[in-house]
């Protein structure tokens, strides 16, 4: 998705240098193993890998460190939340019932380990036909918004199911970089600033959304 491949170089202090693109430093287990090799780890092996990616990488001066974690409440989530100070967690989910169950559990887990949940993002929220512009809610309507109300959390934005987002991610050229004026980006920002918010809340959401898309 970031158009990055290869093995990280080592610094004189034997720290790995993260790979960089679009001004973002990235580190992944995928850089350390064969491309088709599965990562079948549990328990201590997971904790060791997380520690390696956090402590043995020359991150330099960062504004934010974003950790993309798998769904659920397993070893990775527990290891990260218990071993490093986390400013907050963002839960991303599609609106369908099965996905929302995991999202709800994830939010409750972070609360239990005293990690603030900053809000929820609704992914694949709507499909808009590229020809007639008709909108279809393939995975259901507003499931994440309903969950946010249940949990007393904010909705941070909606990401539509759009072919441009898929194509640009697959090519390693994120749509906000390669096509910043495209319908996909405009639709994402429009839904992030949605008319269901009040004037003050809507302005705050728009600021956050535009910062994320810049």
UniProtKB/TrEMBL annotation:
Metal-binding found in the keyword field: yes
GO MF terms held by the record: 4 iron, 4 sulfur cluster binding; ATP binding; ATP-dependent FeS chaperone activity; metal ion binding
GO cellular component terms attached to this protein's record: mitochondrion
Signal sequence region: none
Pfam families noted in UniProt: ParA (PF10609)
Listed PROSITE patterns: MRP
GO biological process: iron-sulfur cluster assembly; mitochondrial respiratory chain complex I assembly
Alphabetic keyword roster: 4Fe-4S, ATP-binding, Iron, Iron-sulfur, Metal-binding, Nucleotide-binding
InterPro entries xrefs: Mrp-like_CS (IPR000808), Mrp/NBP35_ATP-bd (IPR019591), NUBPL-like (IPR044304), P-loop_NTPase (IPR027417), YlxH/NBP35 (IPR033756)
Keyword Iron-sulfur among UniProt keywords: yes
Similarity comment: Belongs to the Mrp/NBP35 ATP-binding proteins family.
Protein name according to UniProt: NUBP iron-sulfur cluster assembly factor, mitochondrial
Annotated source species: Taeniopygia guttata (Zebra finch)
């Amino acid at each position: 998705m970031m158009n990055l491949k290869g093995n990280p170089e080592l610094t004189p202090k034997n720290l790995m240098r993260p790979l960089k693109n679009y001004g973002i430093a990235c580190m992944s287990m995928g850089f350390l193993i064969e491309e088709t090799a599965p990562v079948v780890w549990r328990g201590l092996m997971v904790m060791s890998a997380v520690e390696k990616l956090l402590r043995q990488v020359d991150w330099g001066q960062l504004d934010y460190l974003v950790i993309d974690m798998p769904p659920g409440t397993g070893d990775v989530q527990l290891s990260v939340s218990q071993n490093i100070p986390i400013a907050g967690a963002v839960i991303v989910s599609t609106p369908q019932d099965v996905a929302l169950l995991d999202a709800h559990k994830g939010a409750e887990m972070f609360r239990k380990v005293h990690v603030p949940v900053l809000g929820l993002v609704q992914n694949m929220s709507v499909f808009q036909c590229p020809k007639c512009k008709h909108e279809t809610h393939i995975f259901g309507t507003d499931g994440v918004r309903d969950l946010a109300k249940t949990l007393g959390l904010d909705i941070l934005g909606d990401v539509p199911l759009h072919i441009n987002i898929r194509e640009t991610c697959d090519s390693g050229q994120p749509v906000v970089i390669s096509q910043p004026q495209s319908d996909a980006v405009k639709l994402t920002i429009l839904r992030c600033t949605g008319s269901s918010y009040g004037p003050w809340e809507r302005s705050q959401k728009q600021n956050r959304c535009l910062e994320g898309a810049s």
